Amino acid sequence: MKHNATQALSWLHTWSGLLVGWLLFVIFAGGTIACFDKELDYWMQPSLHGRALPQTPSFDKAVEHLQKKAPDAHSWYLLVGDRDPALQAYTFMDDGTETRVALDPVTGEVLPSTAGGDFFFELHYNLHAGNLGMYIVGLAGMLAFAAIIAGILIHKRIFKDFFTFRPAAGKQRAWLDAHNLTGVLGLPFHLLISYTGVIIFATSYMFAGVNAGYGGDINKLYTEAGDFYEREEVGKPLGKMTSTDALLDRARAELGTPITWASIHHPHDASATIALGGDHSRHVAWNFHQATYDAADGRLLHVTKPPAAGYHTYEFLGGLHMVQFGGSLVRWLYFVLGLAGCVMIASGMQVWVRKREKRVREAGAVSGYGLVRALNVGVVAGFPFAATAMLLANRLLPWSLADRASAEILVFCLAWFGATVWGAWADRNDRGWRDLFAATAAAFTLVPIVNAVTTPNSALWSTLRTGDLALAAVDLTCIVFAISYAWMARRAARTAPMRVEEAFA
């Protein structure tokens, strides 16, 4: 009975991991990068570098811009913070569409668009596929959680294997040691991330309660649970809107925290409201505490009360996943553990290939085994190359280009597709990993060089001199990854056929 149970759990661990392994790698990699999404947004807006920027946000310039561009929107959302000084202006329409534009915090002028860190954040939670992508990511998260639990139950030497890594063992053993080591090292983190990632959208996956209690209106649920203030449109035009900036001091006094965002509902209607709140950096739980004012005369309408235990638990779990608390140190911890998760997933998929090495060879490239092998190299080695190509595109594309963000994303997709095709073709001769590792090392090496040549104010020596560590960290991280990928490429070049595992030695 025990043997059968172990076999069943082993089967669950293997197939729940393999079926969504490539997708999980993209989700983990995107989430790892998104730990520093704001810093990446800042790096990809060089017109803001080397300038004296205001310490206090000014929302009125953004309001003026949106009144011209989207006066009939359902709501506007304005965001500014110390991690990304650009003033982010979001527009939400009644039909569900939304847009985002970055504004200069001093002049209010529109900055050149960029995909930025937001691209990886959205890739992480919905694959840029809207609700369908959210459901796919949710399913992948559930399977990941099941695979982790099954892996714990079948892992008899979980603590011993934490200290075991034999890169010279060759073949399957090195990959399995890497899988066990990174899996055990980040075990609490992997459980936390997979569970909280699903919980964040729990009401979208398990909507029976929302249908029964709120007629399917999920916004009504959150409004009631969070004690947010809402009022219906009255169908009369709003006269002159009160200054949002004039409300900042009052809101700061009401909430006891610096104001970093403003949300304006029904901006064209006499029922318009202005809600102001702070960021999520001071507590683990999300901070949705806000003060709402009448947009016509500025009178205070509502201050949210502390949430009930159930909703606060939800905020806490969401905050654990989104890592807006604890400053850079905690984000770096999540970043490193996220990388460990990527290695765990990648090595797990390679263990599957190594266990079936003879069958893989006999089946050839045009087979199911060949597809798994090609996807391994294309996803695991191709994704980092594509992400680096996007950084280079940010510096090399003309700043006058109408839609630079879309162009950067196109470069990312083309680079990833090209890397996957090349890697799959070269891997027939066991050169796929070596070639893509080498190409990624070269791309990472070029990032700080191209950055210095095209935008001198953003060069590593300039940012270190001025103490702008957020910008310097991007270049320094690229240098570290360039060295790491060059090392792996060198190790891969020295391996015999089907011995690529030594690239991680």
UniProtKB/TrEMBL annotation:
Question: Could you list the residue ranges that cross the membrane?
Answer: 12-34, 132-154, 181-207, 332-353, 374-393, 405-424, 436-454, 469-489
User: Which keywords does this Swiss-Prot/TrEMBL entry list?
Assistant: Membrane, Transmembrane, Transmembrane helix
Query: What are the boundaries of the signal sequence?
Result: none
DNA damage found in the keyword field:
no
Q: What is this protein called?
A: PepSY domain-containing protein
Q: Give the organism the record lists.
A: Noviluteimonas gilva
The root-end lineage is: Bacteria, Pseudomonadati, Pseudomonadota, Gammaproteobacteria, Lysobacterales
